[in-house]
# Entry
Amino acid sequence: MLAGLAAVNDAPEPAHDRTPPAWRIAALAALAAGAAMGAAVARQPARRVAAAGTLGVIASAGVAAAGARRARRARRGTAAGPGAGLPRITVVVAARDEVEALPALVRDLGRQDHRDADGTAWFDLVVVDDRSVDGTADAVRAAAVEAGVAGVTTVVRRPPGAEPDGKGAALAAVPDDAVRGAAMLVLDADARLGPDVVRRVAERVAAGEEAFTARRRVAGTGWAAALQDGEQVLDAWLQGVRSALGGSAELRGNGMVVATHRLRAAGGWRAGTLTEDLDLSTRLALAGARVGVADDVEVWEASTATLRAFGRQRLRWAEGSARRHLELAPAVVRAAGLRPAVVRAAGLRPAARADLLLAPGVLVAPVAVLAAVVAGVARRRPGAAAALVASCGASAALLSGMALRDASRPRPGGRVGPPLLALAEGAYLLHWLVAAPAGLAAVALRPGRVRFARTRERRLPGAVAGFGPAADGRSAAAPAAR
# Structure
């Protein structure tokens, strides 16, 4: 019965995660440019900044509304439906010291309805035991037997001391022969699924979609979980708008799906990245692949349980995004039109080229806003900075309201109404005005090798979203294994 539970040992990989000097220089230049722009804004009359901010809010809402209308039309025209002959899917989970969370996910996978004619699971489960010291592999084996998926489960082991650190390295450790599906569905260890998720993924793959990301949802009660969930709803909505307007949406680490042939053509997962999802998203876009959003596929995950865990998570996301842009900037510039042959070969349309060029602007814009605040306070004339921050919060609140209305999916156990939640989201999302510059500063100034700061303190999802009984929602702090 345990024949399918193979264990694969990988040799330690060389450490190659130091920050190149060119990246540090570019990060410092971005910080300096943002600071200069912010100082210039702080010197402007507050009324002028408020007027410009109001126009910006209206413009962003108008563009987003147009994109949302296109996305809705596209969903009506291309909705996947059930049918025979759906492809096999390979589910991959990178797990480090996840003995508390992972068995619940394995049980969810055992309830999946994506099966062949004789009822056998028509998917594979590959769990990368990434240097765990808490018995994660044994817990997976036991849960797989209990869930009836032992025959399709493989445990890939990265031994203690293997380098580099991070989820990208764990995913890169999956052997080619373990990936038998037409597409790979990547989940976090704390993910929770409804019984139809893998089948819905297979339907989209059968319909020709080569790369897409599920709608991430954050489980739990209270304001902290509600705000984190609202942020994910807004993010998925904006990614759908981005795709509908001709750009390429970005994968998100929990619930990303990539066709196997597309993944291999892009060079696979790259070890040493802080945000493997963003790195692959840009590489796929450079190759002319479109990343979409699967509105009918929801993957639930844990909320952070402490402010410290929240801060570490946001800093990692921000720094990983900055590193992705800095590393791939030369390829982006080439693909944006300086080399027409590259553009023609990749099949990049004008909107996709513009999307690639404008995306790095997220590195500088938050720096400019934060610098305006600092300069305004220093000059004791904070009016212009206050107007700028208010416009950022108003834009976030307005877009959140639009996203929540479109999503129309209530949170299990949630008691916060959409209008109030949208207003709260506008204030909550202002934390990125600090997190994004901090991530850029980490690239520029932090010495030594880069470590993957995983989120340890979480509130594991319980029985929500119709995926059955599981963990009781208590906080989980994975033991240190560094």
User: Anything to note?
Assistant: The longest strand covers residues 292-301. Confidence is low (pLDDT under 50) at residues 1-16, 341-345, 463-482. The two ends are 34 Å apart (CA to CA).
